[in-house]
Structures are given as structure tokens and as C-alpha cells.
Fold this protein.
Amino acid sequence: MQTTLDSHTPSVAHPDGHQDLRVVGLLTFLASEFLMFCGFFAVFLVFRSAVAQWPPEDTEVELLLPAINTVILVASSWVINLGTRAIKKNDLAGLRLWFGVTVAMGAVFLVGQVYEYMNLGYGLTTNLFSNCFYLMTGFHGLHVFIGLLLILGVLWRSRRPNHYSDLTHTGPEMAEVYWHFVDVVWIVLFALVYLLTLI
Amino acid sequence: MQQIPAPLWTLVIGIGVTLISLWLGQNNHWLPEQASEQAPLVDELFNVMVTIGTALFIVVQGAIIYSLIRFRRRQGDHSDGLPIEGNLPLEAFWTAIPAIIVVGLSLYSVVVFQEMGGFSPGGHHHGGTMVAQAPQSSVVDVPTNLLAQANDAQANDIYSQMQVYGFGATPEEEGKAPDLTVNVTGMQYAWIFRYPDTGIVDGELHLPVGRDVQLLIQAQDVIHSFWVPQFRLKQDALPGQPAELRFVASREGTYPVVCAELCGAYHGGMRTQVIVHSQADYETWVNSRLAQAPGEAEGQTLALGHGPKDPLDRIADQIAIAPQQMVRLTNQLKPHADGLPQKG
Amino acid sequence: MTSADLPLSAPVAPSSHGHPDRWKWYDYFTFNVDHKVIGIQYLVSAFIFYLVGGFMAVLMRTELATPDSDFINPNLYNAFLTNHGTIMIFLWIIPAAIGGFGNYLIPLMIGARDMAFPKLNALAFWLIPPAGALLVASFFFGGAQAGWTSYPPLSEITANTAQTLWILVILLLGTSSILGSVNFLVTIWKMRVPSLGWGQLPLFCWAMVATAALALFSTPVLAAGMILLLFDINFGTSFYKPEGGGDVVVYQHLFWFYSHPAVYLMILPIFGIMSEIIPVHARKPIFGYKAIAYSSMTICLVGLFVWVHHMFTSGTAPWMRIFFTISTLIVAVPTGIKIFSWVATLWGGKIRFTTAMLFAVGLLSMFVFGGLSGVTLGASAFDMHVHDTYYVVGHFHYVLFGGSVFGVYAAVYHWFPKITGRLLNERLGQVHFVLTFIGTILTFTPMHQLGMQGMPRRVAMYDPQFTGLNQLVTLGAYILAVSVIPFYINIIWSWIKGPVAGPNPWNALTLEWTTASPPIIENWEVLPVVTRPPYDYGQAPAEPAANQESLLSNPH
């Protein structure tokens, strides 16, 4: 690999002087993270296929509240997208508005989830189904919570003048990508844990 | 590739390698004696793999050593080697040949596996033992609330449709009931053998030679693995999941029963023996055991059946189970004289 | 490190910009984001853990010198066997081969000034020391004793606190591995100097692409399995408890879905290292560049579908035993392609027996044997007999010690001059090689025989009939223990006092040799431009470096 000196290359480049790869990196990480949930899903399906009645008697799931929660979470993915679209047009107020709405929706989702937990009448250790139920929804809830922190972090930073603009908006973009991830995981989870009980 | 050896040399080396490989394949004596009808099948597969492996080993190691000597850098030589970047036919050759070999070997392995009975563990052919349990164990269509009224042990059977793992009947014995069934339970750190036909409980496995034997294997606490090296058979004893080993012991003698799955601190001490009797001796043993009082019979060899020279004697008091405790343990095991152990 | 900047005090180019040109010694103990610092941090930590894991191995072999359990308490023995495995896999091979050489070499090989995410990279490394500390702490609670596989129910009823700490260690190291892999993948994908196409990418980088992809695929599944185990032990769930309706075999699937690919995580980077070292020291282009690159990707892909071969005797349906026999044996094909290609690279070369080359060729030789015994294990009918015996222990040590550890040694001898700017002592290197080679054969070959004859693995006590072979193995293990002494002396001595290497002591053509040794902080004053393939030896008479002849014929 013979090399010659290239006089056109700037001799002093900052290590971070390359193109911004953070969104690509986050996507790669989330693809991996998704496989952890796939592990949980697979375990859930194996246990489900091994018994005649799943979920067992007395540990049935609530359907109405989670359905509303699902609508809220899926809708919030559209809302957060409005926020990043706004900043790409240099509309900082729009970014703050829509991210703020997303935070509110995510918080409602989490409160709804906790409300559901408190009214189910069974706990983590009741039986194998409740083990899976609390573990999977709980881990998803943790990811929603982390997503909320990320969005709040963006809102906090947006207070700095000129921190986000039509040219620099990687932070909001990453928060959006992460939020979509949380959404996708929930859709699969909702289908497996809730909708499959209807069949 | 300018240094291609003369065809004659290739031929001589080829014949030599073939002869050495064939000889080693037949005369390696690396495996212990064969004491089951399954063992020769496994050994044949192993010997074929040794033959092919030896040939490949000699050829590749030979090529490495030859290259190292022939193509070593000489003193003062600063030049580079030949700029060969590849050779498509050669690469295709050494992709295709191993591919053919491994596909052939895997098919051969599958055939051996089938002949050993690996395709039919827990099959429905020996109706007497397994399907007899059907009312409780295959509750696919039974409403769960009916089961819930049954006792606790049966309530666990809502987790039904259990698959049985291991080795079942060989193709020739397909559809026949085994001559003898023994329930095997692994626990820290002992094996317990229960003969449902006679009610005998023992710490050693006694079998008649030349008969079709079915072991129904379960574990009491953690995973164990039932292994008799001379039988070439091994099956994990899994808590909550029934397993089966069906085989024919082909040679009289005493062989070790080894636990092959880490099961705790004294895993290495979890050993007993299988004694393969002639039919007459086996009957004598059964009768002598039946003549003993039941409690005495159970207490006798239930602790680990180690001989006096056993290295484990020093720790025997730590790992062996007292006779009275063993009677209690065996009573705890659910009676399943009529077939596979229940999950629970 | 005796004084401030001794370890890296090779000739220093004058600074042309604002940065310091060299890190000070204390920079190596900080949250430094330079990929070279991180690479060295990984390597040094890994070599420390290597001694810890090796010490445990020596204690275990001492116990096994006699049939009785008479040297250490059997609980402690199990703690050693568990943590020996855990350390050697997660804190030695993976950090050394992937974290160490991956971080140090990838940016240098692709003409980048650093990794794509330097801070993430530093974070990935700094998860390792707390993980190591937790593992040491677990010994105060008896140490995890259920084997590195930690199968429930044993892992759920034995030394609960230590087992919990062990799970946290695995989760931390898994996170580190995922973060590192994100970095490797994005860096190789997006940060190559514009003139470096995929077809000219050094084979080490190709291997790291396969490694990172495999880690990203499989590690999270292990995390899922570990989290369930954690809940079972500490929070009363019953995922793996049969009495609560759980299933012990589910854990094995989750575990091996990661842990079989983990075997490839440990060997793929080494395959990459082999493909770098052999052409340089044989002075020939690598034979079949494309075949080697694609076979790495094939191993990565097929390697995801072979995990059940660790469970042939467990709760495994017949169809699985068939499918996974076939898929397992198929892995032998791409592996064979690599071995044959390396042998063909040697053929017709001008082979220089540097210590790096000795270890590379030693690896090749070991791997042929380990690969063949691996094929026998893949055939399920034979695996029934030898599964969970010393045959398996012999096999995987042949590929992990004879393979991965030889590879790490070879890489150290090859790139030490680049990393430190100083040459290692060749004579000590030869002593190290001979001891390691003999020790490896003596330790791991008799194990196959022991397993076939009936000795199960993970036992602290065995039948007296196996005493002779076990003592041979123990002797071999002691030789291996002694073999690291000249190596560590060589490393420490040469780092301080070794002769200056110059930028390219081996006359190699990949990009890392175009900069100073050790490279300056951002690797190059001016980024290099690629004009030739990475292994373009033999095209033009190479001009010998000034000290070439003395380097090759008179070991220092």
C-alpha cells in the first residue's frame, strides 16, 4: 500500500472533523438493542406454545387501557417528527412545542402503564405469564423513560442560543430515532402480549 | 505453484497417506470397549472421521512444514516471494472437496443417529408405557378448569404436550415394547434406579445382556447427565422434562455410570456403576433383591455404590445420602411405575 | 512505567499544530478518547486478567494432578473453573483481540484519525475495570460456581450473591462489547480514507466487520437470557424454574445463541491478524484475498445458526439434532478456505522466521488439529459420547489457546514496534514460542484421550485409571505457566530499553506502517493516499530498511 503525500489534504483535522455519524451509530445500536427484546419475545412465545391456556386463569390482561396507550404512543411518534421537521426549517419554537407535546404523551403512557399495573390484581411473581408480562412491559417502560430523558435533554439544550438550527439538529434527530424505536418495540409487544390473547 | 512435485511423487505420497489414514482409522483404540449395540455404530462413524481427518492432517501439516523448509528466507536475501494472488481452480477445488466431505459426513452422522434410535424418543409406538399416561399428560383438549380440580401434581400438567428427549426405539424395534423399563432419577449427587415391574430400588443399575432396555430419565434438583462411556450413550436428566435412553447392552460386565453435566461441588463424585448380567444372573439378582425386606433392600446400596478403593471415600460422608434419608427421598418421588415421570 | 514518558519515548516528530504529540504516562489511566490509548488500555488490562485466569488454571491443574479432591475445596474449585472460563473469554481474548487490536489498528489501517465515536469508545473500555472488580468481589461471596455456562437450576441455587455479581459482570461486558462493535462497524464503513475501497481493505478490517456484526446480533440475546436469570435469582420469577412452569432448556438456547458466536468473536479477529502477518513475513501477496474476506462473512452468517450443537444431549428435538449437525459441519468449509489460503501464501514465499511468524505458523498448525476435532464434535452421533467430557475441553483449548492466544501473541510480536516504537527481543521471543508450543501440545492433546475414555469435564475428582494422562496435562500446564515469564519480561524490558524500531521494521505495506512508531496523536501529519493493494509484495524489489539484515539474522 504505497502512499504518497497528498498536499490537498488539510494537515490539521480535528478527530471529530468527519461527517456526523451519530445517527448511523444510534441506528446500529438500536438494531442490536431490538434483538434483546426479540430474545424476550422468543421466550414469551416458547412459554406460550407449551401450555393449553395462556395467559392462565386469573392473570388475564386488560385491553382497553393499553389500546389507548398504544394510540397515544404511536401518535407521539408523529408529533416528535413534527418537531424535527420544524427545526429543519429553523423553527425553534416549533421544535420546543412538539417535543414538549411528545414528553407529555410519553408521560401519559407511563402513568397509564403504572395505573394498569396497580389494577391488574396480580404481581411479578404470580405465575410464568405475569413474570413475562411485567418483565417485558417493564423493560419497555424503562426505555420509554430513557426516551423521555433524551427529549427533555434536547429541550434543555434548546435554551442555549443557536444550539439547534436547520444545519445542526443531530440531537433532536437522535431523540426522534430513539422514540420511534420505543414505538416499534411497543407495537410488537402489544401484539404479542395483548392482541394474541384475543385469538 | 512452480514447484509442483512430479506426478510419481504425488502418487507415492498419496498412497502412503491413504494407507496411514486407513490404518489409524481402524487401529486407533482411543475409545473404550463397546458394551452396547449402539456403540459399534458410533465407533464406525468416529473411525471414518479419524481416517479422513488423518489424511487431511498429514497433507496440510506436510504442506506447512514443506513450505517452511523449502521457502525459508536465505541469509542476505531481501527479495520478495512470487506475486501469486490466487488461483481460481485451486480455490474452487479446496472449497468443493471439504464441502462434499462435510455434507457426506453429516448425512452419515444422521443415518447413524437414526439407527441408534435418535429419531423416536418418546414416540407413541410402545403404547403401554407412555400413552397410558395420556389422561393426565396430554391435555391438549382438556379444559384447564377440569384439571384445576385435580390435585396439585396434576395441576402442574396444564404445562403439557411435553416432548420426550433422547433415544427411542431403533428402526428394527420400532413398535415393540421394551423388554425392561427402569426409571432413573438424578439428584445431587447420586443416581437412583427404580424397577417399576418389581418395585426394586437400587443405587446401581443392573441389566440383562442382549435385552431391549428403556431408561426413563429425570432429575430431582439440577441438571445431570447420564453417561455410560462403554455404551456411547449420554442423555441429560433435565428437571421437569422427561428423557429416554433405549438401548441393548451387548456385553456382560461392570461399567461406570458417570454424571457428565456440572451439578455442584461434588459433581465429580456423582458416579455409580451399571452391571450387565447374563439373563440367568439377572434373574438371580432380582430374586435376591425381592427376598430382602423392602426397607433393608432400599437401604443397602442406595448410598453411593463405591467400592473400597474408590478415591471418593474420603468425602463419602459429605456426599453420600444416609439410607433412611434415601428411603424418604424415594418415597417423595412420585410413583410412576406405569410410565414416564410427570412434570412437577 | 518508571518515569514520565519512558514507555513511548521513541523519536518524536516536531509538533506542527496545537496538540501535544505524545501522551504522558498518566494519560493512559484517564478517560482518554484517542483510539491508540484505548487500544493500549484494553491490551494491558487483558494481559493482567490473562495472568489471573492463568493462575486459576494452574491451581485447577494442581488439584487434578491427583485423583482425589485434596488440594482445594471443591466449591472453590468450581468457582475457579467458572471464573477461569469467564475471565479468559470476556476479560482476556475478547478485550485483547477485539478491543485492543481492533481499536489500535482499525483507524490506522483505514487512514482515519480516530474511531467514529471516540467518547463512546472510551466508555466501552471503562466498563471493563468495574466489571473486573465485580468479578474479584464475587469471590468474597464464594464465587460463581455454576460454570461459565451457568445453567439453571444449578446457577439459581448456588452462591446466589456471587452469581448475581457474575451476571452483572456479563451484562457490563456485553454492553461494552456492543458499544465497541457499533464503533468498529461505523468506523470501517464510513471513515475509510477516500482512496481506500472495500476491495483494498486490509483483511483484519474485513474480519472486524464480521466480528462486530456478529457481536451486535448475538450479544443482546445473551443479555436477555442473563436478565431473566437475574430475575429468577433475585426477584422470585420462574422463567427457568420447572416447578413454576419455567423451562431450563430455554436458557440454554438464549445462552448458546450468543456463546457459540462468541467462539467466532474470539477467532475471527485472529483470522484477520493471520491474514496480515503471514503475507508480510512470507513476502508474498495473500493468496485468495476475496475468498478470505468473504469466508469471514460466511462464518459470521453460518455461525449464527449452529448453536444447538452445544445441546445435542440436552432437551433437543431430533430435527434440531439433524439440522444443527449439518449447519455445524458446513462452518468447516469457510474455515478450511482460510487455512488453505494461508498455506498457499506460504508456498513460494521468502519466509522470515520472526517470532510473529513463528506464532502465526504455530497457530496454523494447531488450528488444523483443533478444526478437525471440531468436525468430529459437530457430528451429533459421536458428540453423544464425548459431549461434556475432556474431549471438548481439549478441542476448545486447541482452537482458543492454540488459535486465539497464539494469534494474540503473534499480533503483539508483529505490532509491538508500531505501538511502542521499540523492537521486542527475538531470542526471548523464540524461547517463549518453543515453551508455548510444547506446553500447548502436552496440555491439550491428552485431554482428547481422557474424554473419549470416560472422564467428564468440570470435575475436581476422577477415577485413578486417568491419573497418568492427567499428570501429563498438569505438566503441560506448568510449562505454559512458565512460558509467559520470558514474554512478560520481554514486553516490559523492550518497552523501556528495546532498540528503536523505526516506522516500518517489517517492510509492510498496510497503512499503519506509513506513520511514525508510535504514531503521533492524530496518526498522520498528512493523511496517506492508497495507491496499491494492501499485500502487493513481490511486484518490485523491496528496498531493505537500514537495519533489516541485522533485524532478521541477529536476534537481539
Observations:
- The mean pLDDT of chain A is 88.
- The radius of gyration of chain A is 21 Å.
